Amino acid sequence: MRHSPRTHTAITCTVLVTALGAGVTACSGGHPLASRPHDAGKLISFNGPDTDSGAKADPDRPLEIDARPEGRITDVTATDASGRYVAGELSADGRRWHSTSPLAAGAHYTIRVSTEDDDGEPGRKVYAFDTSTPTGKKRLSVTFGPKKGTYGVGQPVTAELSAPVKDRAARAVVERALRVRSTPAVQGAWHWVDDRTLHYRPREYWPANATIEAHSDLKGVKVADRLWGGESEPLKLTTGDALIAVTDAAAHRMTVYRDGEEIKQVPVTTGKPGFETRNGVKVVLGKEYLVRMRSSTVGIAEGSSDSYDLPVYYATRVTWSGEYVHAAPWSVGSQGYANVSHGCTGLSTADAKWFFDTVREGDVVKVVNSDGDTMAPFGNGFGDWNLGWDKWRGGSALAGAPADAPRPVEQARLRPESV
Q1: 3-class DSSP assignment, residue 385
Q2: Which of 52, 136, 322, 333 has its CA 20 to 30 A from that of 216?
Q3: What is the dihedral of CA 160, 166, 172, 175, to 10 degrees?
Q4: Residue 101 and residue 222: Cα distance in Å, rounded?
Q5: CA angle 120, 126, 128 (to 5 degrees)
Q6: What is the DSSP string of 165-233?
Q7: How confident is the model over 14-25, as pLDDT tens digits?
Q8: Angle CA(341)–CA(379)–CA(328) in degrees, nearest 5?
Q9: CA–CA separation, 308 vs 301, rounded Å?
Q10: In terms of pLDDT, which residue wins out, 403 or 119?
Q11: 366/242 Cα distance (integer angstroms)
Q12: At 120, is the secondary structure helix, strand, or coil?
């Protein structure tokens, strides 16, 4: 894409930097201008690596290209061998171009400069060079989650960094390099949970039966002083059907939908006064056929009226602190009529088995009309969907709101289950 310097000041697909003292060679390419006799090198001054030197370019040094009096720069593009573009800016009069982002370390770059002379005749020059790899630097790697597989439409993509990144500018470098693509395409954004953790989710839930791919372009990229991007494994996920379970704590009913169609409604009991079930959207974290639930693990004194020690079957976990959807045969008489649990959602054994067999990790479990608090977005599972879209985007280092602004984080404190 070409932009006239007479009407535009910035080139969107432009390029990057190189240090003085690096080896550069001219090369030919398949661009239409390559066959023209006009040599753009006569119209520009390339303030980059020395063409007579065999040294590699310092990725910390910027690249500048100036036009001679008889020429103008019309476009500059630079890519590395992986196809990554580097940003740059062209002056309004086309006399100067300079990079606005750093080169990657240990990379091979090709820079293509398009020009025109005073008669409007186009020209083109191509430069190629390698950048050096800094020594004694930390490498920042990324681990994407969850593990490869098929998940529900509420499953966020996570990115765990190998080192903390606190500075906003450095966070922006990281975030620009973390790519998430889904088919079908959706609008989504990263949100910084803390200095080492990011979550990515769409504006709405993922589409059913979608393919989601995440990868990092951080390799060789300077993040901060003495911190450079390292190798990271990509991730590929798929989603299944859009399965959403809505529990109305006031009506004592759970309604399960698949792809927008109601497939089952069952009576339930939720948290009694003092142990109210959290409102809001939760995401299935896992399933356990048998869990031993003991009140002593959550601070309830043995022998008290609220103490218990019971085997619980068909337990579907929705918080790390111990909130489940599970079989509660001891409360069948209250299911559909009253809330008598210690915070979990209790079902009959048959209904709990059906739910256990039907849902998968990442499916959505939403609680409404409880007297309890709303689940916090982070710290106790995936409450990401309890943030509105504007607040979610405000947690991006690329958004207008500060990425390190205070956000509610729920400590994964243990909580009694509904027994």
Answers
A1: helix
A2: 136
A3: 10
A4: 10
A5: 160
A6: --SHHHHHHHHHHEEEEEES---EEEEEEETTEEEEEESSPPPTT-EEEEEE--TT-EEETTEEE----
A7: 333 333 333 333
A8: 20
A9: 9
A10: 119
A11: 13
A12: coil
Rounded to 5 degrees, φ, ψ at 329 are: -60, -25
E-state strands within 105-173:
108-117, 122-130, 138-140, 142-145, 149-151, 157-161
Return d(Cα 94, Cα 89) in angstroms, integer: 10
Report residue 186: phi and psi, to 5°.
-140, 165
Closest among 161, 136, 157, 137 to 148, alpha carbons compared: 157
Q: What is the mean pLDDT of residues 392-397?
A: 96
Q: For strand 108-117 and strand 10-11, is the pairing parallel, antiparallel, or unpaired?
A: unpaired
Cα angle value 79/10/117 (rounded, 5°): 85
**Is the Cβ–Cβ distance between 219 and 233 less than 8 Å?**
no
pLDDT digits (tens, 9 = 90+) for 183-215: 999 999 999 999 999 999 999 999 999 999 999
Q: Are 21 and 58 in contact (CB under 8 A)?
A: yes
**In 10 A of CB 43, how many CB atoms?**
23
What's the CA gap between 351 and 346, in Å, rounded? 10
Separation CA 189–CA 293 (nearest Å): 38
Whether the pLDDT of residue 326 is over 70: the answer is yes
**Which positions ≥6 away from 90 have C-beta within 8 Å?**
3, 5, 8, 9, 10, 11, 14, 73, 75, 76, 96, 97
Phi/psi region, residue 258 (left: phi>0; alpha: psi -120 to 50; beta: rest), is beta
Residue 4 pLDDT: 41
**Which residues, listed in sequence order, are joined to residue 169 by a DSSP beta bridge?**
none
User: Which residues are tagged catalytic?
Assistant: 326, 344
